[in-house]
Structure formats: C-alpha cells, structure tokens
Amino acid sequence: MKILICICFFLLHLINLSKSTTPNILIFLVDDLGYGDLGCYGNSTIDSPNIDSLARDGARYTQMYSAAPICTPSRAGFLTGRYPVRLGLTSNDNRFRTFNSPGQPGGLPHDETTMAEIAQKLGYRTGLVGKWHLGLGRNGEHLPTRHGFDTFFGMPVTNVQTCGNKKIYNLIGGHGEVLDRSFLSYWITLTGKIWLTFIGIAFTTWYFYSRKLAFIILFAGAIGFFGGMWYTLSFTLLSRSSCLLYRNETIIEQPVHLENLTLRNTNEAIEFMKDTVTIHKKPFFLYMAYIKVHTALFTLPENVGRSRHGAYGDNIEELDWSVGQILQALKSLNIENDTLVLFSSDNGPFLERGIEAGFCGRARTIEGKLSEPLRGAKGQTWECGIRVPGMLRWPGHIISGQIIESISSLLDFYPTLLKLWNVSPFIDRPLDGISLWSQLKLNNETLLSSSSLSIEKERDTLFHYCGSTVTAVRQGKYKAHYWTPKWDEGLHACPSVTICPCLSNQHSPPLLFDIEADPAEESPLDTQKHSKILSLMDAAVQEHKATLIPVPNQLEKLALPWLFPCCKTQGWTRVFRLITNSCQC
Ligand SMILES: *[C@@H]1O[C@H](CO)[C@@H](O)[C@H](O)[C@H]1NC(C)=O
Ligand SMILES: *[C@@H]1O[C@H](CO)[C@@H](O)[C@H](O)[C@H]1NC(C)=O
Ligand SMILES: *[C@@H]1O[C@H](CO)[C@@H](O)[C@H](O)[C@H]1NC(C)=O
Ligand SMILES: *[C@@H]1O[C@H](CO)[C@@H](O)[C@H](O)[C@H]1NC(C)=O
Ligand SMILES: *[C@@H]1O[C@H](CO)[C@@H](O)[C@H](O)[C@H]1NC(C)=O
C-alpha cells in the first residue's frame, strides 16, 4: 500500500503544468439545503437573487445527486470522487452514519487524495471555510490542514441543535445568552425556580390540606430537580465538546458563537481570495462549506424576520446575502472570468426538524408538468434525500443560462477538475464520477486538455447508497429501490429516532419507478413487465460490488467518552473541565 501511495504522488509530480488550465476554483456547498429552497429551483416565495444569478450566468442541473444522503459520506465522496463506502466512511448502524463526536478517532483515510491536495500540488493556495465533518483525530491528524488545505477556518464536527442557544433561551428566558456559564449555574437557574415553586406548593398543601399529598409534591419536585440535571448536562457537554471553531489546528472558540458566524465566514472567504490573488499571486481553491442551513438555525439579529418562511427562510436569505458578497468580491478583484464556481448541497432537507427544515421541491416531468414534492428526506435514498441544487459558472467559458437534465453527481466534480487540470486519475483505485465537460455547452475558445482521459465516459448507472448498502439504483430513466426506510406515522421522516435507519423495508422484487415521468416516485411500475431492466440493474450492482475492497471502518471506531478537545489545555481534557466550562476560550 505504501508503495502505491508513493507512486501516486510521484505521478502527480509529473503533471505538465504548462498544459494545465488553472482558473480559481470556488465551491459553495450548503448543509441540508433542499431541492426546492431556491428561486432558481422554482421557489417563488423565497428571495435568493444572488444564488439564482449563478443559474442565469452558468449551467443549472436538474438532476444533480449527492454521493450519499447524509453529511459525512456525501462530503467524502465529493472531495475524492469515490463512493464513500470505498473510504470506510459509511455505516449501516444508525448511530454511526456521520462523525458525531469529536472523540472519534477515525477520519478520511490519508491514502486518499482530495481535490484540494491535487490543487495544492498544482500551485493553488487552498482554503476551507466552514464545515469539515470528515474527522478530527486524537492529535488533529484528520483535520482539513492534513488533507490538502493550507488554511482552515471553521468547525471540524457539525453544527447540532445544542450549538444554538435557543433551548436555553426558552428555558431560562434569556436573550443573547451564550453557553458561557458552568453546568452548575445553568442547573440552578433551570431548576431553581421549579424547585422553589414545588416547595411553595408543598408547604401550602401541608398547611391547608394533607401532609401525604405534600410529600408526593415534594417528590415530584425532586424528579424535576434531577431530570434538570441530566438535561443541563446533555446540552452543556454536547455544545462544549462538539461546537468547536478552529483556525488551522487550533481551537479559537469553545463553544462557538453561532449568531454572526455566517458574517465571519464570509469575511474569511473574501480575505482568503484577496490575499491569494494580491499577496501570494497564486490561483485559489476555496471550499466554502456553509455551516448553514443545518439546525441549529442562526442569523444575525437584523436578519430575523427577513423572510416570510420563519427562521428557516431567514437562514436561506442570509446564505444568499453571503453568496452575493463573495461573488461581488470576485468582481471587485476582476477575476470573475477566471473563476470556476460550483454551488450545491450535501444532501436533502432534514425533515425530522419540522418547520426548521427545507423544502423537498418539485421536479419537472418529461411532459413538462411540475411533480408533487419529492419523496423522503435527508438520510434516505428517495429523491428528496439525494437530489440537490447544482450550478456551475465560468463566465466566457460555460455558456450562460443552460439547463442540464442529464443524471449528474457530486462525485463528478473531482474528475471534472482532473480533466480541466490535465491530471490523470490514479490507476490503483477506481474513480466513480465522470467528467461533466462533455455535457456542458462551452465557448469555442475554451481550451480543455486534449488528452483523452478515461474519465470522459458516459454514465450508465448511479448507485444510491444509504449507509454501506446500495439501497437504490438509477439506470437511464429507471430507478429501483431495494430498501426503503420505515417512516413515522404521517411523515416522510423519523423524528422518533433522529433520522430514518436505512434498512427497514426490503423489496424483492425492487420498487421500480420511471423518474423522468414520475420524479415524486408515486406510481411503482409493474416489475414483471420490466424484468429486463431489473436484471440489468442487478447485474450492474453485482459488478459494482465486485470492485469494492474491504477497508477499515472509520465511523464505527469508538470515541473515548471521557476525553474531549479543550482549547485551554493544549490537547484533550477530561469531561470535568467541560462541566465547569474551564475550556472556554
Ligand atoms: C494556517 O496555516 C497556513 C499554512 O499552513 C499559514 O499560512 C497560515 O498563516 C495559518 N494561519 C494561522 C492563523 O496560523
Ligand atoms: C461576533 O460576535 C461576537 C460575540 O458577540 C463578537 O465578539 C464579535 O466581534 C462578532 N464578530 C463580528 C465580525 O461581528
Ligand atoms: C420555498 O421554501 C420555503 C422554505 O423551505 C418553503 O417553506 C416554501 O414552501 C417554498 N415555497 C415554494 C413556493 O416552493
Ligand atoms: C467576462 O466574460 C464575459 C462573457 O464572455 C464578457 O462579456 C466580459 O466582458 C468578460 N469580462 C472581463 C472583465 O473580461
Ligand atoms: C462555435 O463555432 C461554431 C462553428 O464554428 C459556430 O457555429 C458557433 O456559433 C460558435 N459558438 C460560439 C458560442 O461562439
């Protein structure tokens, strides 16, 4: 294995730089953004003019699929062009579908080459602003700075509900309060009033009525007192251990202050681009991976109530503002035409969050009618979980205003860049994406390398993974489901278990749909009449499975539950310091 890695890097050194085209690369990847959340995807009640401008001035994809229906594997597939199962970044165990604790030792394997690593070798300055979610490692060995990014400003784990302070607002009645008190002080604030109230009621009951009832009331109060202890412990520990803000390899906020994070991320991104162009005089590769619009939702106070869709809509509109600022900076730097921009989302909306989640959207059928909202949600391989917005802009090169209906994947951007850069894919491991250039209408003068890289082939089959299992397959207009999740009553999601497990209902024969005629997957086709296509799909799955080499599972490696990163102690600390909040920096 070591030898192979060396060969890979050796090959990278052989790239003929003079033949490469190296425009700046700017990637916007949003967290949990729905297919139906943007004006350019048919949402008439949300205001997203800046993001919509990317569709107007570039190419918009109607069938862009993420590599997985959930953050960690989706992002890993995107950055490597390989199905995440090949990287050990998938799990069928619902507890381990993403990295959810900073104490987990696993991460993106180092023998994989991210697009940022290739960009670095080509002379780009590379930066990640926002969310990583591909591991941290006990000694920071899985941080983005160890996977090809020169600079990192953001969160290595994910935004979670407890990173926001809304829960505490509601309970303690405060506003603008951040998680900067000790566990003890939260607990007393939270349960103190309840406890006093119960004592008051119990005393009155004892005096006027019955001593027995008074004891029952006191007992109930005690349950509240200790229940409050657990509750407080869960949010103080979770927010302090997970909600970390890093600069390169150093924690700079613990817990992170979310409120103005989009503003700060935007400023970081603009500064990175400016410095790279004016000081370093290099092309840049910027991966702007928004912490938005995953819950906890957050915006600047002035953006509260900006949209007519509540906090979620406000978050989309603040996102749009940020994209606008960054696009404006490209213009001011006069590098608009030298920058290839990609915009997409890692997976569909987190419908388990109710009104704090996005809209699955409607797709146009082959007859041009709008479908019902797409089925499913984040975490599932129904269309809503994996069909995401996708746009590419490169003024003067990609003809503006085109709509691309071919089946595309976020796995494809890696080979698309290889083709642009004239870099050969590694021979020791399969690449799963295809280059997108042949689908795009390009300006006649746009020079792509003439080398006939083997990544230019057409896509015939796309495998949709939920966890480590191919749960659905797409071939042409047909999609077959081998497994579907079991939803909570009346929903397309599973709030009872946070997110739907992948392997609930097995279908044999599979459920078959014509996605072009029926994007909302409402009318299963007669499988007997379509036995030929089903056997072709089965054969494709078998052939694909034969290419999988077992690798160590990165997500299922267990965390050390008593140790957490702590910005005050140069490394990791025991849980006690998080409770007292002596890690606040
Ligand atoms: C982050 O690391 C890069 C190089 O790896 C360095 O240029 C940059 O100054 C670092 N940033 C900080 C704040 O240390
Ligand atoms: C963001 O908010 C924090 C905490 O309120 C504040 O200290 C900081 O100056 C703000 N940053 C910006 C760029 O507004
Ligand atoms: C627009 O998006 C919001 C937020 O996801 C959603 O609530 C609303 O239904 C969408 N509206 C339309 C017309 O698609
Ligand atoms: C950028 O490209 C567009 C489209 O080809 C062209 O109209 C515009 O003049 C170019 N801008 C610059 C600054 O070269
Ligand atoms: C590209 O060249 C072809 C034929 O040479 C011409 O018909 C077409 O209009 C050109 N397209 C553009 C965008 O310049």
TrEMBL record:
Domain of life per record: Eukaryota
Residues in Sulfatase N-terminal domain copies: 23-190, 264-422
Which range is the signal sequence, renumbered to this chain?
1-20
Which cofactor does this sequence's record say it needs? Ca(2+)
Which family is it part of?
Belongs to the sulfatase family.
Please give the PANTHER family that the UniProt record associates with this protein.
ARYLSULFATASE FAMILY MEMBER (PTHR42693), SULFATASE N-TERMINAL DOMAIN-CONTAINING PROTEIN (PTHR42693:SF49)
Write the protein's name.
Sulfatase N-terminal domain-containing protein
Organism encoding this protein: Adineta steineri
Q: What is the lineage of its organism?
A: Eukaryota, Metazoa, Spiralia, Gnathifera, Rotifera
